[in-house]
Structure formats: C-alpha cells, structure tokens
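cron nightly-structures :: item 1 of 1
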Amino acid sequence: MKKFVTLIVVASFAFVTQTLAQTPEQAPAKPKPNAGASGKSATTSYDRTLLRPAVLKEKAPEKFQVTFETTRGDFTMDVTRAWAPIGVDRFYNLVKHRYYDNMVVYRAVPGFVVQFGISSYPAVNAAWRNADIQDDPVTQSNKRGFVTYAKASQPNSRSTQIFISFKDNSFLDSQGFAPFATIDAGGMKVVEMLYDQYGDQPTNEQDQISRLGKAYLDSKYPKLDVIKHATIVGAAAAVPAKPAAAKPAAPKATTPASKPQ
C-alpha cells in the first residue's frame, strides 16, 4: 500500500494514525459545488499541468505573498524561501498552477492546527502520489500563525499538504517540521473561522477523500469550508507580520503521525 502523510492529534489517553491522499484514481461521482459559509461555489476544473508533477520545478522568488480566498473570507501568507527553499519551491509551483483552488479545508482542530492539501480531483491526487520532496532544515519555530508542510515520521515525506498552527506548536520543531510562511493577526481571524466542528473525523478518511475527491466531502461533511482560489499576489513584507496572540484553550498532547505502509 502506498504510504500516507499527516499530523495526529493525541487525546489525553490515545492517538489516531492518519493518512494522506496519494492513492490510485477511481472514477468519482461528478463533484457538486460546496456552498460553504458564503453560499458561493468555486471553479470545477483544474490546470492539466498538475498531472505532470515532474515539470513543475520553477524556482520561487525569495519572498512572495499568496492570498487565499475562502468561503469564510480571505487571508494572505507571507512566504520566505530562505526558511525552507525546497518546500517553498514546491509550494510556489502548486499555487502558480492552481493546485489549491476549489479545495476543501478538511481538517480544523481548535487550539492545534488547520490542515489542507488534498486535491478535489482524484486524477490530480493520483499524479502526486509519489511526488514527495526532500526535507528542509528547520530554521523557524512552529508558532501561532506559521505555515508548515504536513509530513510523517519518515524523512523526505512532504508532498502537498500544509498546516497552519493555531497555537505555539514548537514541540514539532525537533521532529522536522520546517515552517516556510506566516499569516498575520488579521488573516488568522479568518483562519479561525474555518469550520471546525467535525474535528479530526475527516482526517481519518483521507484515503477516501483522495480517491473520491470533493464529492465525498460534500456528501459526508457538507459544512466544511472551501478555498475558492489561492493566488500569488506580490512580494512579501520585508519582515513577516507578527502572528496574533494565541487563544487560551488548547488540546493536550499532540504529535506528528507515523506513515503506514
């Protein structure tokens, strides 16, 4: 079986191993629009270049910004290539070719992280199944408002999924999670509005999400929010904005997932 990627939330007495959408394509039902919080649907097609990951090798600018238009509002990432150049080059190519457009934010755990990166299109997930990248050294800390790739305990297991920390998750630093971008206080207010009442339940079904696409999430988890578009909008600020102060409540222990074979 192909390996999978994620982070895990650990309850006070147990933890659950998760999986990432990098599985063979199946023919899903035609995705229906996800109205999300705003009642507006997003694009229902994708850039066919995404079916050829090997050609998406363009070097990213040293600093740039990406605006995410979601069904809860917009937020912007300030991306710094020097922090994690391999990861930033991958992210830049994904955004440039609209990988994150029409994407469901399937995981939002209050006081921990929000995570996304499984394409709404099974063919795209199949294409990126074996497209892992090498690890970057960890040069920043996983604090509130910092953006990082999801990965497994195995080295060089980053692919397309990213997460945003809701609180200081600096315990992840020693486990190889290398932040590459930040979101300012205003943007984090939008991120924290993303629908989170399903908790980690969809996270346990990443194989299904990958194989069946957005149609699966629309059917089983209809309240999840959607990234309508992610767009490169210009150079990042010289100094990334200071992340917002953390909210008081948070889950207990957390740890990154293993990557089952």
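cron nightly-structures :: done
Residues 85-96 form the longest helix (12 residues).
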